[in-house]
Amino acid sequence: MSGKRPRSFYILAGFFTLFLLFLYGPTMTIGILSFQGPEGGLTFPMRGVSTYWFADLFRQQAVGDIWGSFSRSLVLGLMVMVTSVVVSIMGGLAFRKRFAGSSVIFYLVITSLVIPSILISLGVGLIFSQSGLTVHWSTSGYGSQLTWTLPFGLLIMFAVFNRFDPSYEEAARDQGANGWQTIRHVVLPIIAPSLIGVALFGFTLSYDEFARTLLTSGSYNTLPLEIYGMTTNVTTPVIFALGTLTTAFSFAIIAIFLALAWIQAKRRKKQGSDAGKGLV
């Protein structure tokens, strides 16, 4: 048998390489340009290499409210994350059994994914303003973003509970556990990796959401809106440095959630091993 690879392999490998360059090339370009010297501009060729523009982020900014917008995006992301996890669990548990109107509710939830995001933002903003409520990132912005994160969380939970073996719950009830104890000590530990995924979805989708926050954030920008505003009046690589830091922050968040999933998997494996030893 010949060890020579077929031509199709190299074609597919080349196509995949181009895809990766298309996917990560812009981010890599921004990362490289953010390390320009004090005289650097927004395009190549680079004028020196330094961390000057990263330090400039921590100085008093003449334009924009970078750290204020970052703190708002962080708080909003945490609010959306917690709500998405709690509601997704409750929805997943509720939809394990069919009830009147369950199909209608399911399609109403999923429909928000196909409605243009800017229309969601406009609609939520109008509802708040016409109702006499303050349009603010922590209220209308929060509600608008939940229309984006909750459907993803619910879809994940539906898939998880469709594969969930009810015999675990039956065994817990046979041992005298009530409903809450069964959920706390049996159901939640089993679905914990999926909950971590829902939390990651909720936070990251909220943290970088632009369209659904555009008309619902009120007078205070979140970080995506602030960066968009900076593109119209900032002419230095400081905006690239900000993009590099926010990208690094996003990867750090992903790494933290993956570490939590790994720790949870190790703990479950250890508990299973200890239980097996106890039966011997």
TrEMBL record:
<keyword id="KW-0813">Transport</keyword>
<feature type="transmembrane region" description="Helical">
    <location>
        <begin position="148"/>
        <end position="165"/>
    </location>
</feature>
<dbReference type="InterPro" id="IPR000515">
    <property type="entry name" value="MetI-like"/>
</dbReference>
<keyword id="KW-1133">Transmembrane helix</keyword>
<feature type="transmembrane region" description="Helical">
    <location>
        <begin position="186"/>
        <end position="207"/>
    </location>
</feature>
<protein>
    <submittedName>
        <fullName>Putative spermidine/putrescine transport system permease protein</fullName>
    </submittedName>
</protein>
<keyword id="KW-0812">Transmembrane</keyword>
<feature type="transmembrane region" description="Helical">
    <location>
        <begin position="104"/>
        <end position="128"/>
    </location>
</feature>
<feature type="domain" description="ABC transmembrane type-1">
    <location>
        <begin position="70"/>
        <end position="257"/>
    </location>
</feature>
<feature type="transmembrane region" description="Helical">
    <location>
        <begin position="9"/>
        <end position="35"/>
    </location>
</feature>
<dbReference type="GO" id="GO:0055085">
    <property type="term" value="P:transmembrane transport"/>
</dbReference>
<keyword id="KW-1003">Cell membrane</keyword>
<keyword id="KW-0472">Membrane</keyword>
<feature type="transmembrane region" description="Helical">
    <location>
        <begin position="74"/>
        <end position="95"/>
    </location>
</feature>
<feature type="transmembrane region" description="Helical">
    <location>
        <begin position="238"/>
        <end position="263"/>
    </location>
</feature>
<comment type="similarity">
    <text>Belongs to the binding-protein-dependent transport system permease family. CysTW subfamily.</text>
</comment>
<dbReference type="Pfam" id="PF00528">
    <property type="entry name" value="BPD_transp_1"/>
</dbReference>
<dbReference type="InterPro" id="IPR051789">
    <property type="entry name" value="Bact_Polyamine_Transport"/>
</dbReference>
<dbReference type="GO" id="GO:0005886">
    <property type="term" value="C:plasma membrane"/>
</dbReference>
<dbReference type="InterPro" id="IPR035906">
    <property type="entry name" value="MetI-like_sf"/>
</dbReference>
